[in-house]
TrEMBL record:
GO MF annotation: an example: NAD+ binding
Organism name: Olsenella porci
Name the UniProt record assigns to this protein: Sir2 silent information regulator family NAD-dependent deacetylase
Coiled coil: none
Superkingdom assignment: Bacteria
Keywords per UniProt: Metal-binding, NAD, Zinc
Binding site for Zn(2+): 142, 146, 177, 180
UniProt cross-references to InterPro entries, sorted A to Z: DHS-like_NAD/FAD-binding_dom, NAD-dep_sirtuin_deacylases, Ssirtuin_cat_dom
Domain Deacetylase sirtuin-type: 5-290
SUPFAM superfamilies named in the record: DHS-like NAD/FAD-binding domain (SSF52467)
Record keyword Cell membrane present: no
Amino acid sequence: MSGSTGSFSESVDRVARAIERADAVLVGAGAGLSTAAGFHYSGPRFEKDFADFRDRFGITDMYAGGFYPFPDDETRWAWWSRMIWVNRYACPVGRPYQDLVRMLRGREYFVLTTNVDHQFQRAGVDRSRLFYTQGDYGLLQCPEPCHQATYDNEDLVRLMVRDQRDMRVPSELVPRCPRCGRVMVPNLRCDDTFVEDEGWHVALGRYQDFVAAHESGSVVLLELGVGANTPVIIKYPFWRMASQNPKATYVQVNMGETIAPSAIADQTVLVDGDAAEFLRELRGRLSGGENTDAA
Ligand SMILES: [Zn+2]
């Protein structure tokens, strides 16, 4: 495995040059990008909206709450509606997402993400250039699942947040599968019951087409905030694409944890730093596209 080379500023310059001369940019974005945007699952953001759940159930952060065995459906949906509201609907669009989407406009690009917070769509990414593999807070599915479809939840989540009392939603608001009547769950991949709906498969196909179209050309593989927990979706495929394409540039931006195989060291730029700062700098150094705040 190879280590990082060059200063932060030199790395930004190198990536900017690679993007300017590239035929295409493939972005792979993980949880670290939303962390860099300030959307922390613990600390003040958690305390502000979930102190009651912390006091009663001992839940210490938003991630852990997703796995808590709540006593009933009304309580579980009080948790989830608040979780979804805070992270999908009520929060702002993060600056690093805005910077990234603006610098991609006008270029040939595709975004592959494991994030479920809908930030790319809200930042204005072209939806035909996005594949969100792990689901979306804004969608519901049957838990079985008895059919492969997802359902928008905004109106229902708004009501559940508004009408919940003492950490319970009214029973009539608990979402039920329109076909089998089971209590629905968020469309988030945690096991093999995850629903891959028609839109998911269309996006997968577009991603595969993009990869095939650029497997031998000058392409930048821009990996942002992808940790070591689920490397099989973004990190390993990006390593493989770089190793099979000498004209590819592989960029990895991650806080406190950068690693790449030594076989692709000459094509690799490792940036151990803040993805928000990196994208702000990078956007400032790229010409063309929509690179002004007024855009
Ligand atoms: Zn069902």
